[in-house]
Amino acid sequence: MIAHLFNAPLGESEVAVGVGTVGSSEAIMLAGLAFKRKWQNKRRAEGLPVDKPNIVTGANVQVCWEKFARYFEVELKEVKLRDDYFVMDPEKAVEMVDENTICVAAILGSTLNGEFEDVKRLNDLLEQKNNETGWDTPIHVDAASGGFIAPFLYPELEWDFRLPLVKSINVSGHKYGLVYAGIGWVIWRNKEDLPEELIFHINYLGADQPTFTLNFSKGSSQVIAQYYQLIRLGFEGYRNIMENCRENMIVLREGLEKTGRFKIVSKDEGVPLVAFSLKDNHCHDEFEISDLLRRYGWIVPAYTMPADAQHVTVLRVVIREDFSHTLAERLVNDIQKVLHELDRLPSKLSSNSTIETQEVENNEKSTVTTKKSALETQREITTIWRKFVMDKKKITGVC
Q: How many CB atoms are located within 10 Å of the residue 104 CB?
């Protein structure tokens, strides 16, 4: 069912294969191993060295890609980000591809801002380079977040097995697959894309059973739950839920825009989330907003972007099926309350960074000015600011 959702060729000559995993992290590990082994086999057959494999990704990839690279000794070549472009640039990615590249990893739904990377553009550019060089560098799509969104909200978007260089796709069932935490899937275009030597066969359960996994014993409840949701909701049910998530995302985004204080960094087409940053963070920053929102029961993460956009800080709200229109409006109201509170608080940066202390020497009765370190200054400002907030809590009774 999932292979069909991703438009896998299901004819006689091509039969998609896949495996259930513990989330997308294991799925990515397995897909990466398949790419590495297939690349090694091809290189050995040609009498070429196999000691320097690499993967090309954007700097916005999830940490599991870094884990794969480190655990399985694959160089991770990252395309750096830039202002107002927080996903992998297809042109720069293809430029970094060489004969040792086992695959290029594209993300359908960036963790940072929910944006879909242009897999179609990447496929076209990489296909052209393969024709020029004689290589056959493939594409893996990390659709952990977007795999259960794009087929229902953007059916015309070409990102999946409709593109010839896309050889495998992973997706998380516990995100927008609407299942308990701990289930992921990885699908290969056909059997040839998964080297047979990576598959183990056991028969002690009564029949031959192939297995390709990095985990051992695990429960089947999530697999059953995924099957149940696909059968119970069907295509129309999933589409209705995703459309509702998108509508609530628009409500939240428009509410934040009306405050006039935020810049929206997420895109209309992508995962239903809102990533936003302050237009002016000289007095107070996004981390302070995140901290104060906890008083109202909201956990809204604040974080910096990867290189070379690490100077950009954003807040992110992910819209799930249980995040209603009413909750979106309530969150906007609570954010406005936090902004009003911060406007009344002293700025962390308002204190002079060169706070001076005067010491009177008893013998000479002269004044000595000592400049504090930046760390000492920041600690002192933070202490004063926290004391101010705590005193305000005692007066207002807010906890």
A: 29
Give yes or no for a contact between 17 and 187, defined as CB atoms under 8 angstroms apart: yes
The confidence score (pLDDT) of residue 374 equals 58
In sequence order, what are the residues at sequence separation of 6 or more whose Cβ sits closer than 8 angstroms to the Cβ of residue 247?
325
Burial class of residue 157 in the structure, from the number of CB atoms within 10 Å of its CB (0-12 exposed, 13-18 middle, 19+ buried): middle
Quick one: pLDDT at residue 394?
A: 58
In the prediction, which pLDDT does 392 show? Answer: 59
Instruction: Return the closest-CA partner of residue 313 out of 86, 155, 148, 52.
Output: 86
Plot region of 7 (φ>0 → left; ψ -120 to 50 → alpha; else → beta): left
Q: What is the pLDDT of residues 121-179, one digit of tens each?
A: 999 999 999 999 999 999 999 999 999 999 999 999 999 999 999 999 999 999 999 99
DSSP lists the bridge partners of residue 184 as 21, 172
Task: Tell me the pLDDT tens digit for each residue of 313-345.
Answer: 999 999 999 999 999 999 999 999 999 999 998
